[in-house]
TrEMBL record:
This is Chitooligosaccharide deacetylase. The keyword Signal applies. InterPro entries: Glyco_hydro/deAcase_b/a-brl, NODB_dom, Polysacch_Deacetylase. GO terms for biological process: carbohydrate metabolic process. Is involved in generating a small heat-stable compound (Nod), an acylated oligomer of N-acetylglucosamine, that stimulates mitosis in various plant protoplasts. Belongs to the polysaccharide deacetylase family. PROSITE patterns: NODB. Residues 47-269 form the NodB homology domain. Keywords: Signal. One of its GO terms (molecular function) is hydrolase activity, acting on carbon-nitrogen (but not peptide) bonds. The keyword Nucleotide-binding does not apply.
Amino acid sequence: MSMAAPAFNLRTDLDAMWLLPSLKPRIANQLAGLVNTAPAWMKNERPLVSFSFDDVAKSAAHSGARLLAEHGATGTFYVSGSLVGTHSDYWINADRDDIVELIRSGHEIGCHTHGHLSIANATPERIFAETRTNTRFLRTLEPDLKIDNFAYPFGRASPGLKKRLATRFHSSRSTRAEVNHGRIDLQLLSAFPLMDRKMTPRVIDRILDRAVQTNGWAIFYTNDVALQPSPYGCSPALLAYALTAAEARGIECAPIRDALLKIGAERTF
């Protein structure tokens, strides 16, 4: 005699799912996209592109910055203070002098969490505290440094974290692969991985064409910039292709801080 399956209880079963470590950050990240924490209508006069570098690898601070300079551009480097001057599994990280040189060259320094923690292993309050620690560290390099923009480590957000970050940062960048256009959420900016294992020139062309069609803002992110990049980085050739392709379409290249002003999203606090 077969036994009937127990009835599904929405509250009980969802609570149980929420407690599973592997599901909690994924559910939170999905929910983050359903709540527009910092709505803004884009009012830019021409399409935009931004190039951002996470963590930051020494090769990004050198080869990446050099390629941007060759195209008359600057980028946004989201620094995680605890990684500065260290070695990771895939690359050597930028040291203090590298970060200072980026600042002097006109690049934007953005904020990661100091210990590269994400919503998968820390509460929103812990992450917010980490951003304060990171800011203090970065200002030991340049006391007057403005740090207005954040990037979610591993691209993981949550509704509660977005709300908390909105009290401190002008924007927070995710890893949602879309062109920003029309009405956007400043605390969940979309961005594409500029990584050799995930991106091709043909896909870059489609992304930039979409930015032109929508008068939108395409943001790219990567980690290292090397002839043999890590799984999370790009080759100089791929970065150069994206820069050249944007120029050919008349797309203006700007770091995150400048692009926010160009879309009319002036900071009010």
